[in-house]
Structures are given as C-alpha cells and as structure tokens.
Amino acid sequence: MTTIDWSIEGPHFNNCNCDYGCPCQFVALPTDGTCKGVLGWRIDKGHFGEIRLDGLLAVTTYAWPGAIHQGNGAMQCIIDEGADEAQRQALIAILQGEGSEPGASMLKIYRDMCSTWHEPIFSEIELELDVEGRTARLSIPGLLETSIESLKNPVSGADHRARIDLPMGKEFHLAEVASGTSKATGAVPLEFANSHAHLCQSTFTSGGLSA
C-alpha cells in the first residue's frame, strides 16, 4: 500500500438507482435491494505526492447485487484523456482510496466492497456541474450520459430544494439533492431515470474526507 499523501478538492455528483433521498444515506437498504451508480468528479485542486491534478475530470461507475456493505460489487474508472501517464495512474490510485485506512472514506469503502475492478478507460469527458443550482451534465461519447436537474414541485413546477446533512458522512457532510438520469454502456452498464442524485463540494485526502 502506498504511503503517498494525496488530496482532491472540488465538486462531484452521484446519480444512483434509488428513490430521491437514497435510503443508503440513512443506513437503510437501497430502494430495490441493489445499488448502482455513477460519480463524476471535477478536480479544482489536487495532488498525488508531487503530481498535480488540478483541472482534471474523472468518473466511476459502480454496481452491487445488494447493498454496498454486502459486497461483491463491480467498478470501472473513466479518466480524463487529457491527463498524462503519471496523472492517470495517480487518479486510478485515488479513486480506489489507495493509502487510506479501511472505512476512512467512500473511495476506500467502495473499492473494498467491489470484488471486480474493470480496467480503466481513458476518454474525452465533458462535465458541467453546478452544486448551488443542483444541475449537472456528463457526456462520455459512446459510453455514458448523465443529466441532473433540481427537484420540482409536482403542483407548481417550481424548483424544490432539499439537502442531506451527514456530520459523520464518508462521502460528504452536506449535499444538495437532485433528480438524475443516466445510461452507461461500459463494463458496468447502468440505466435509470428520475432517480436520486446529489451534488456536493468536498475534499478527499489519503486520511479520509476532510470537508
């Protein structure tokens, strides 16, 4: 296991197959008993040892046959093709929570709960992400499309705002809840519409979630 110090700071989103709110955030079983999701990251500031990661994008797709803690999941990383070889390997290590103690952060937990890790893909990634506005758009040509929008009042159609506050969270401490639709055709196929999504500003380090 590496002893390299690392951190990534910036916004990210998660769109999964659960109903809005996602029971998993409240230590309950997922909506249909399975857990599938896509996470998109914009790294505003980051490093892996001396390797700078500022401005890079990364995506991870996941699928578990049951709840995450029951294990036997599969994951695949999709790395910004603009990253050089050193940056690519650094991002792969970070997205696996390398160097973190077990249970220290979502990145380490998710990797430990996956028995299958598919080879990473290096691709063009288009990502627009607005935490405050509760919107995001992710496009990876020929592989993955995600769109996220704010929740809507079913009567008036006005934006509805809801947050999840997790002081002891491993993925975030405060997240904006939204509605997401995703379709992925990679090694971890995904397809869900109008399902739970959240967006947050966070800082992950080799020691765990720090903000």
Main beta sheet: 16 strands, mixed
Helix and strand succession? EEEEEEHHEEEEEEEEEE
Q: Tally of extended strands?
A: 16
What distance lies between the first and last C-alpha atoms, to the nearest angstrom? 24 Å
Number of domains: 1
What percent of residues adopt helix (DSSP H or I)? Answer: under 10%
Strand content: over 45%
Structural class: mainly beta
Oligomer: single chain
Rg, please?
16 Å
Quick one: overall form?
globular
Average pLDDT, rounded to a whole number, is 95
Unreliable stretches: none
What is the helix tally? 2
Would you write up a description of this structure?
The protein has 211 residues and is mostly beta strands. It has one domain (6-209). The chain is globular. The chain has helices at residues 85-95, 106-112, and strands at 6-16, 35-42, 45-48, 51-52, 57-64, 73-80, 114-117, 121-123, 126-130, 135-140, 144-152, 159-160, 163-165, 174-184, 190-205, 208-209. Helix content is 9%, strand content 48%. The protein is built from 2 helices and 16 strands. It has a 16-stranded mixed β-sheet that branches.
Summarize the structure.
9% of the residues lie in helices and 48% in strands. With 211 residues, the chain is mainly beta.
Fold topology:
Layout: E1 6-16, E2 35-42, E3 45-48, E4 51-52, E5 57-64, E6 73-80, H1 85-95, H2 106-112, E7 114-117, E8 121-123, E9 126-130, E10 135-140, E11 144-152, E12 159-160, E13 163-165, E14 174-184, E15 190-205, E16 208-209
Parallel strand pairs: 6-7, 6-8
Antiparallel strand pairs: 1-2, 1-3, 1-15, 2-5, 3-4, 5-6, 9-10, 10-11, 11-12, 11-14, 13-14, 14-15, 15-16
